[in-house]
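Field: sequence (string)
Field: structure_tokens (string)

Example rows 1 and 2, in order.
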Amino acid sequence: MNDTSIQPLVLIADDDDMTRSLMSAALAEHDFETIEVGNGKDAVKLIPRLNPDLVILDVQMPEMDGFSACEAIRATASEPAPPIVIVTGSDDTVSVERAFDVGATDFISKPVNWSLLGHRMRYILRGAQTRDTLARREAENNALLEALPDRLAVVDRAGNILNYLTRDEQEIERYSHGSLDDLLPRTNLNQVLTAIRQVMVSEADQTIEVTGEIGLHQQTGIRHYEIRITPQAPGMALLILRDVTTRKQAEERIHQLAFFDSLTALPNRHHFLHLTHQELVSNPNEQFALFQLDIDQFRRINETLGNDAGDQVLTQVAERLQSLAFELTKSGRNAQCARLGSNEFALLAPFEDKLFLSAISSRLNALFATPINSGRHELIVTASVGMALFPDDAADSNDLHTYAAHALQTSKQAGGNILTLYADCHQNASHSLLELEMDLRRAIENDELTPYFQPKYNLARNTLAGAELLLRWFHPRHGAIPPNTFIPLAEQSGLIVDIDRWVTDCVCAHLSKWQEAGLNPAPISINISGRAFSYDKPATTLARALSTHQVDPELLEIEITETVLMADPQTATATLTELKNMGIRLAIDDFGTGYSSLSYLKQFPLDTLKIDRAFVTDLEHDENDRALCHAMVTMAHSLGLNVVAEGIETEYQRTYLRSIGCELAQGYLLDKPMPAEEFAEVLSANRNRIVHATQAMEQPKIRH
């Protein structure tokens, strides 16, 4: 439609030349522009080309009368169609009725009052514009409501529904002017009503979750809804109801797959660590024994008889261990068992005296006395066992597991098929660890640690996207010391804070060096320990290193584990926000091995989620691992996070992860960890093909 604030265009169709002239003159006095035609057929033809703001049609015209012309215009004109005025006799009521039937906006009676014509047309034009505006807004609102997955309900203090909006007309009819007790489970009703009243008093939003057989959903069964309550007019509140059942089910699936072993259904290592901690904290005056078992020569079974035979051995050992734990629990001792790794199991059992402890040890040994049936074979298997006691050997769950693992290692080194007490090997171990700690301290002071860089690649584009810095220690006498040996030692001794500072300065120095060399540095990820994150103000350390070496903060990504974040979520949020405001990217590391709750992750300003290698290793053979990885990727994307998969070692793993939308990956299939000099060559070779993590996602994800 033309801009009526300038000069509205009126198309006049009348076979009387004098009437057309008088009508044009009367409208010109009121700033209308007019175009005249002598019949309805010509008017219909001109509509698409002129797009007039108003059409005036006389009833009696040759070739096509006013009624037929009006009907044709309504049938062919694009929306919004112009208002149409029919000119008819003053006493011709039949014509007036027919005019409205064929779509006329209004009518003018003859004889025409020329002095009022312009005013009348202005009024009709304003009315049409108002109707068009309302229709457009209604269409926009309907489109918005159609796209909105939420239900909206305006309620009063008592929970009466004053207005209900959704795209389902049956729901609107059912719940409008009803009550919340028709809509929500009774078990949640009081909670929601209390929240509504609190919102009305405080005028601050609240969000709660309800679960149950909720009336508004067509499907049967338990549904989960997130309800956001926001204040409206006095005595009223707006409820925004969102169905989060799919998200909840995915989270529950992640929890199940993350906390329990898919083959034996026993708790896995990370869940068992949590269970051990709970038992010790809940029963500080009890004595506990932790047994860690490793099936001797298990690799030979897999290599000789195949993986299926190996799985049968593991399953039967798990069943026997679970049976022992069940018997101990029935006798009043809450014993728990777990599968810690490939062929490693654990049993945690309370005891009163050494005699009872000896009985548990004997029962544990008896588990392996009976042969295990593996298809056509009967196998006699043995196990190496390590045992540590609480509180005699260890004062907390972490130390208890560490010491039991050390005792197990001693049993394996002695040839297997024996049980070793931590107390028996404690003295020699303490001396060795103290010596190693002193060497590590000197290595930090003398700059003897070596950074290695493992590239990350964009799976969809097969381009370099960054790297993770991995620390290596080459001892002058003992050779390469594995990180899983010296990192725990550094954490126990407090040296980890010095290592974190060294790593921060080291990575910034290398980034600066690569920039000066004219390379296009890819973002580098570094790990921050829990101790440094909680007590050492990492933002200050990072800001100093970035400033000293003049490095862009976007080239740095900090990886923090779930356990560290959830130890103190409030402090973690403040620290992460400070780092985020500096421009540093943030990643959650080893996801799936800790709390595995994306509900918790919503509160942290993260950029990336890293899937732990434990869920990638068996992707080809483990349906549960595939389901878990798919759920993690989907849920991470719903929170606007990139996803990095660790430990890619086979083509199947790469192909599957790419197919489910995982953006980035690292692992030996793609590239091994390498010294800084080699990584500089990789940067040089990929100088013009680097796709940073911020560009990895094919399309933006929205954080809800």
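Row 2 begins here:
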Amino acid sequence: MSSVGRIGLAAFAGLLGAMIIISAFGMEIFTGSHDDLEAREMNYIGFNDLIEIDGVNFTVTWEEMSENSTEYPEEHSRHGWAFDSEEGVFIHFEGHSGGKTWTYDLETNTWKDMKPTTSPSVERANAGMAYDPVNEKTVLFGDWRGGSATDDTWAYDYDTNNWTEMNPTTSPRKRNNMGFVFVEDRACFIMYGGQDYSSFLSDTWFYWYGNNTWWNPTTTGTPGNRAGHSMAYHESLDRIVMIGGGVNGDSNDTWMFDIDNLTWSRQYPFTAPSERSKHSMSYDPNSELVLLFGGGVGSTQYNDLWGFDGIDWHQLTTAVKPATRSNTEMGYDTAQEKLVLFGGEDPNSDYQKDDVWVLTIEKEEWLRIDTDADQYYPGNLVNTTIESNVDANVTIEVADPDDASFIIEKVVGDVFTFTIPKGSELGNYTIYATIDGGNVTANCTFELLKYVPPEFEFLEIVFPSSVSLGDTFTVSVKVSNPFDEEKEVYLTLQVHGPGRMPVPVEVELVDIDAESTLEQDLSVEIPDDYDAGSWTFQVNLMEELPRNGGHSLVSYDGMFTVN
């Protein structure tokens, strides 16, 4: 619905009261069972690669990059792949064969053979590798080579173009096919499990490059012995997510690791990828999803894409995608804001691969609006909650039952508050919200009802029968709340002398407990320059003050004498 044509009816905008509340929109971490989690509606839109997850639309696109370098790696799998955010390039250490160190620049789509003077040994496969932006080093641990594994720790410095063997005092057992990630807030690498050729492991290790220290803490809970699993750090949840792998490489259980509390907790999503191992995972901050691609079980290979939001896995279906593969790596380019996948293998086809694929996930503009109730009375305040992923003004428009607008206002914030004018037509109202500069709109409705006062009751009012000019005295009020919920109300007192303006009395904002009685004292001072005689008073309990369109919930009138 357009706002054009409604502007001339905005005369009531003077009644508008605005309030802005800044709030955070976060995600709940679920560690219980299906019975503890309310079912959520999930829609998947299969055309144009548009995916809807929990009411948010995403455009998901895979693009294969054409070769644009005179030199580039040959087909590779089981390699190391980490994004150097300082230099804006991926560091690639050849895996199943080779042993070279390469960089890949997505912006220019170019490869470079770095030819460092010192390198880890060749024929190194399925090692753990990740980049440390705090110390600006790429760290590699372990490998699989000729029926055995290693336990050496290496660090690569792009500026010096050199690998250094770290030789820490304590090291984890030899292994490969482990989970290995870096957590920037803790400036440490975290590793879980893996395989020492014949033995499967279930230990958790931390590594700090800064002091070259490995630490094996005692954790609560464990995903058990496994190799071929994948891990990624979910930044917005501050949790490490793990899925798949196992002793037989055929599991699909999902786990999360609480770093501060050293706790592994199994998750129970409604949907999940099928059983697999040697898949690739990375976190995408644009969608706030941990993304999983490919992997396989035996000769069965996959090329499906999944996203984990902290509660459930969502399959992201695209028309174009990489071929089936496992033993590939995927990383996030923070400069280009895209995920990049390289190589892998599929024993059913051409085995090892040398293709580069770029994954882009973009949030579509979305807007939601809701009210704090669906029924109101004339004079009530209406709070509209606004949620959007766009940092822009939102135009609010309210239409009455005749589709005529009485409020049009631009707001910034999460809550917009307005007053329904007294005397407004009863019936259904619609609130429209539109993101400025776009065509994204949302609306919600509420019903305006004839006001029926709640049954509050004054049980007792103690007012002196006579006072003198200049006196200060106390009025005691006792009022009952029959409702089963606490009420926030205003207690007001008006005192009138003969032919004079009311004596000002301070208003009390009070909370009345559910199904209880409130006792309150109001202090009154009679000015000594007023006239003696018969005076009147009125005690009111109000939802809102009169200047905000408030109405009296219960009222009491009386008289007293001033000498």
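free_text_note (row 2): The CA atoms of residues 97 and 123 lie 5 Å apart.
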